[in-house]
Design brief:
The protein is α+β, with helices and mostly antiparallel strands and 268 residues long. The protein contains 11 helices and 8 strands. A hairpin with a 6-residue loop joins β1 and β2 (71-73).
Length: 268
């Protein structure tokens, strides 16, 4: 496409839509992209696409990666996504799914969102048992020693996982915390293969957890769905009995987020 063709193509995109289309393209990519990558879709003049990226970076919607060329979602865009997920209409239906799951399992159920350095609890429904573990909405928990965090790590491509494992400080939260990088890599590989993650008292003594992914329309991890319980009441082997119901609820949540519809009850 020559310069005249690019100019004609760019005229079909209203100026007030261009920033949104850039953000949409970055979000759909799911991995770091350059302005040139995005412009293969948008066909804007080269100075225009670089100006749009510079504006979004300056305002905190995008952030530059360590290579200096590619970009990923910045803090404002991640918060924007979280706020969409917590909008009243969607949240009411989401909490209904979470409440039904918590009632059936009998333990506290959580939805967690990956942020830059930790998982953030987005929603939760508490167990009715008086013995419970307090991790309120907004709590940040590490990737490497929680079920939700390990589920997220299992969704990363190899280069991003390598970068995390090379830089993360693996502190022992309990005697069961995996602090050896090779052992953690092996645990993440097992998590990826089986499609669920386990926290066997790795984050907190006396607490176990089980997590599964909630996927977007492209099959990528959007958030995690998990439940945790005190070991006085539930062991890991017993928690596995709830895996099918957890996965069914995750599919309902994915359908709700993607299509903005009331989730259909699972047949499972």
């Amino acid at each position: 496409m020559d310069g005249a063709d690019v100019e004609r193509a760019s005229e079909t995109i209203p100026p007030n839509l261009r920033l949104l289309l850039v953000l949409e393209a970055v979000a759909q990519a799911g991995s770091p992209v350059t302005p040139t990558d995005v412009n293969e879709q948008l066909k804007l003049p080269k100075p225009t696409i670089h100006r749009l990226f510079a504006t979004l970076e300056a305002e905190g919607f995008l952030q530059r990666e360590l290579d200096g060329r590619s970009y990923t979602a910045g803090r404002r865009l991640r918060l924007f996504s979280a706020n969409v997920l917590t909008s009243l209409r969607v949240r009411m239906a989401r909490v209904a799914v979470l409440s039904a799951l918590a009632e059936e399992i009998g333990e506290t159920c959580n939805i967690a969102l990956p942020d830059r350095e930790a998982m953030v609890y987005l929603d939760r429904v508490e167990t009715k048992w008086p013995l419970r573990i307090q991790l309120p909405i907004g709590t940040n928990v590490p990737f490497y020693c929680t079920a939700s965090g390990k589920m997220y790590l299992a969704s990363l491509n190899p280069s991003h996982l390598n970068r995390y494992l090379g830089a993360a400080k693996l502190e022992a939260r309990t005697s069961s915390t995996i602090t050896d990088r090779k052992a953690l890599r092996e645990e993440i590989a097992r998590t990826r293969d089986r499609g669920y993650a386990i926290d066997a008292e790795e984050f907190m003594d006396g607490m176990i957890a089980l997590a599964v992914p909630v996927l977007d329309d492209q099959g990528r991890l959007l958030v995690t769905l998990s439940f945790h319980a005190p070991t006085q009441r539930l062991r890991v082997a017993d928690a596995m009995a709830h895996l099918d119901r957890l996965r069914a609820a995750a599919r309902e949540l994915g359908h709700l987020v993607i299509y903005d519809e009331d989730p259909k009850p699972s047949s499972e």
